[in-house]
Structure formats: C-alpha cells, structure tokens
Specification:
- With 684 residues, this protein is α/β, with parallel strands linked by helices.
- It starts with 6 loop residues before the first helix and ends in a 10-residue tail after the last strand.
- 44% of the residues lie in helices and 14% in strands.
- The chain folds into four domains: 220 residues, 3-Layer(aba) Sandwich (L-fuculose-1-phosphate Aldolase), CATH 3.40.225; 180 residues, L-fuculose-1-phosphate Aldolase (3-Layer(aba) Sandwich); 204 residues, Rossmann fold (3-Layer(aba) Sandwich), CATH 3.40.50.720; 31 residues.
- The protein is built from 25 helices and 20 strands.
- Strand 18, helix 22 and strand 19 form a beta-alpha-beta unit.
- It comes from Bradyrhizobium erythrophlei.
- One of its GO terms (molecular function) is oxidoreductase activity.
Amino acid sequence: MQSAWIDRDAETAVARYEKLGRDVGLRVYTTRLLGQDPRLVLHGGGNTSVKTTIADLNGENVEVLCVKGSGWDMGTIEPAGLPAVRLAPLLRLRAREKLSDEDMVRLQRANLIDPASPNPSVEALLHAFIPHKFIDHTHSTAVLALTDQPDGEALCREVYGARVGYVPYLMPGFGLAKAAAQMFDADPSVEGLVLVKHGIFSFGADARQAYERMIALVTLAEERLARQRKPAFVSAKLPARPARLADVAPIIRGACSLPDNRTDGAWKRFVLEFRGDDAVMNFVNGAEVVRYGQAGVVTPDHNIRIKNKPLVVATPEQGDLAGFKRAVRDAVAAYGETYRDYFGRNNARVGGIKTILDQAPRVILVPGVGLFGLGRSSKDARIAADLAEAAIATITDAEAVGRFEPLPEADLFDVEYWSLEQAKLGGARELPLAGQVAVITGAGGAIGFATAKAFAAAGAEVALLDVDEAAAQAKARAIGGAALGLRCDVTDAASVKDAFAQVAAGFGGVDIAVSNAGAAWQGRIGEVDEAVLRESFELNFYGHQRVAQAAVKIMRAQGTGGCLLFNVSKQAVNPGPDFGPYGLPKAATLFLVRQYAVDYGNEGIRANAVNADRIRSGLLTEDMIAQRSKARGLSEKDYMRGNLLGREVAAEDVAQAFLAQALALKTTADVTTVDGGNIAAALR
C-alpha cells in the first residue's frame, strides 16, 4: 500500500473544521483516507479515535475521547460521527472485573459531551485504554488473510515479530478492551495490535504517524502474501454454455423471496447486485468452492450484513432453466434448514433468549455466472456484494499461502445476534414497496416521471425507460439513488427485451411494470390513412403488449406474482371526435388489461389500468391546450378544469393512482378514473 497523506489536504481539513480544533480536523482527514480504501474497511466497519481537549456545555475544558460513532462510515465521516466522551470516567472502568454490554453503552452515553451524539463505537473502551493519542482500526483484507488460518497468529508473528502485540479472538466490548490494554502494557513499544481473526490496530502520537503505521503494517502483510504462493483454486468442470445473467437473476431472486404472512399475497423480496470480474469467477468456479466459500465470514464485523456464510448453487445451463429453478429452490430451502439448525443449537447454548432472524441468504455464489449480493434495497444489496468481494480477496490470499479458517460458528453466532451489532442496522420502518423493482415506460414524459418519483418515494427501485435515452437518464439522475435510465422503444420487440434484460441484470427482476408510453394520432376515422392507424396501434396497443409480455416472463420466473399497470386514457371509454386513431388502440389495451388479469391471476399477477384525462404532458401539449380552449370558447384554465370537481388534474395525481393500484394486493382488472369527474368516461 502507499500512503495517501497530502500535507495540503490535511491542512485544508484542519481549516474546514477550525472551530473544532486541529486534532478533530486531522482525525476526520485520516479516517476518510482509511475508509475510502476498500482493502481496509467497508460500509461502517473499522473505527478511529483521538484523545483531545474540548469545551463541554458549561464551557469548561475537558479531556475527551473522540471516537467513531457506531454505524458511521469512515469514508465519508464528519465530525458529528466522532462523538466526544469524557475520558476520565472511561479510564476508571478498567479497574472493574466485569461490565455488561448494556452498562457499557449506558456509561458511554452518560459521559457524552453532547447528549444528542450517536453511540460511541462498541470498541470505544479499547481506544480509551490504549494511551496513544491517535488510534486506527481496520479490517484489512491482507491482515485477515494471514490471521484467518489454522496457525494465523504464528504467521503474523513471522511477519511482524515484536513490532505489534497479538490479542487472541474475543468479542468486541469490555473484555476485549481489557485484554488489548494488558497486551499493550506488556510492551508499550508496539506500533499496533493484531486482533486474531478480527483485524488490526495502529497507534501514533499524531494523526500521520498512526495512519502511516497502518499503511506500513498492511504493506508487510501484502508482501508476505506475495511470497511462497500456490495456485489458490483448481477450476471445476462446468457446462460449456452457462445461462444468461438476465435469465438467472429472477430465478434466484424469486427463490430467496419470503412470504409475508401478515397479508395474503405479500412477499418480502430482495434486490440483487451482481459481480462477475475475473477474481470472482476464479473463486466461484473453483472445484472446492463449497468448502472455502461456505467456511464462514472473514471477520465477525461482516456477519450482521451477510450472515454466517453464503449459499452456493449449481451452474445454470442454457436450455434448462426449469431444472436450474428447481435446484435453486431446493438449495435455498436447504440453506434455511441449515440456518435454523445453526440458530437452534447456538440459541440453546446461550439460554434460548434470542429470536431468529430471517433465513434468506445475503450472498449467493453461482459457478459459471458470478456472485449476487441480496438486500432489501439496492444499497443493501451493493453492501452485501462489496463485502463478498472483500471476502473473496481475503480467502483467495489465505488459500494461496495456507488454508482459510475463520472463526468457529459459536463466535459468529454471538456477533450476529449481539444487540450492539444489530443496532448498527437501525430499526427504521420499511417503506411499502421496499425490495420491489418497478419499470416505467415513457418515463421521460410528465406522467412517467411523476410515477417513477412516486414509486421511488414508496421504497421501490425504479427503472425509467424511454425512447429518448438522454431523457430517461436525466430523469433517473433527478431521482437519484440506484435509479436506472434506459433506452426502450416499445414499438421494437428487441428493444423491449433488451431493456427488461438490463433491468433484470441490474436489480434481479421486475415486480411492477407501468406501461405508460404512448402518443396521440388524430383524424376522422372514416378518412384516416391506414398507415396512420397502424402506426398508432404499434405504439398504443402492441407497445403495451410487448412490455407486459416481457414483464410477465420475468414475474413467472420469480414465482412471486407481480403487477401490470397500464395507461389507457379516457379515449378508451369516452371517444372524442377526430381521435379514433388514438382511442381505438387504447380501447384494445383496456381489453388487454382484463385479459392479463384473467390469464395470470392464478399466478398472483395483477393487471390494472388508469383512465386519465386532460393531463399536461407530451400528449396534451401547451399548444394543443390553447387550440382546444379556443375551439370551445374557453380560457385555458377553464378548459383544464372542465370536470365535475372543477379541478385541474396533474401528472402527480395519475402517479398516485398507479401507486395505489400497486399497493392493492387484492385488486385486479380494475380501471381507476383520474379526471376530476366526467360521467361519460365513468365505467360501470
């Protein structure tokens, strides 16, 4: 590794946080340097601290420990993520023989300078008991590759000698803090501590020294891993033609979904994140992937995110997706049974006081394809995949110089079901569409974009499809998060299939398809050219059919139902003069909605429609509004409010109707009218 310290940047950080003092500014700076390197920490892992003096709420200067707050990400940390705790009361705790986790948290919170601060790290006492001013802690993949061995401590001693101390594995908390302090007291000249099968600490009198000691110590581990290597994995014999990612992902996603027994027809679904670079493929294609791939996590800190081990499934072959689907469902069921057994025996060991978590895997290894991270959101899926890739790097190095051996399952269980670790995940209430994937066509327009925003706000991952790729991507950026913007011409079957394949590859599948793309052709029906009528049918009928077909194929592969939503327009039931070329295909689409409801209702796939009128959009442009208003002798305002309620209907109103239909799990073949009141357009 190379030091990323730059004097100019360090001083910029000091200036930015001048009011908080030089120590805090430099602590933020080097914490970010560590946190931005995935070889050191990922997604809330690791911690750092500085001992300094600040003014308390009474204006009195107090010696404090500023330590990373639990759950904060080192790569983006701000001073608020380094809660200041009075140091003297923490140091007095070392004289105790025992201290429960709950009391440790209460005592740390009781001594916060700012009561509104986050909980200090679960390793805050370790930082307090070591007297160095700056302390850094990471889960370096290189160091873990050395410690996660049957003789891990001996291997580390070969590398470091007396330069560091060695602490046998203990769960974070009071016991580990005391053991680490005792190890330091035995030789205060050490530059850091190796926590066997956990990670590494470095110390320093200033921020740069602690940081660059970490870099130097990790570099020594990397250099040892580069020597005396053997081929880590022997490749298994795999089918010549593995199935496509876009076909594999929905099958895996459906197999891992969990029925939500609170509501008939509801599912707890997961979003998928795929990885398949050379390192991943070398790992998952290994003949012994079941052994080294399922041995356990590389550091207990990962356990709360990706469970105690991943799931390995059989290689999917092209032409036998049905066989792969059966094999995956059997593998997921077996994984759940194994997890329940693991929980049962370990829960009995701790007195039967724990409540089992869901039994779905969070990482799936697929030989011939790659790996999938699973999460209730795209963000969580990405975290799982990142941790899995870090584990692959660690295990690959461990197998190249020895044999990967993580912690025993009892230790992994204790961390996975440790209340202080579970607290990192937070207890926020999930949004109603969490874990679901929604595809919206015509998303570059007013109604499509409003619908995409509404679904994203309800917790769904959204893919915005439009024939104008730039518009789709711009709207996706406006929504933010993991929103996808993709080109899709619904008049082109290949374009539709490709767009849905990209969504399946990007998120794992599709749960909701909002078929919204359309355009209005005009003309008296007895005089309109046939080519115009055919063009309108291509977009306003066949476009809906192509989208629905593509969505249904994925939904059936998942086996968890789904929802088809169509924009049918009031022209489908209340035709206006000279709008036959537009209204006829829309009327056919209304029948299409009902046909999908009839044909796929027994598979849990619902089909509903919104019948909207007079929405400012690409169909009803400002010029068209002006022309129609003038023709009727009305002001534009009165024209747009020409309904029973006297209210203009907006794209956002249509979006809310689509959202309500998506949430109505026991409604299908419904047509919701959104027009402010037009009796002629009302359905029986």
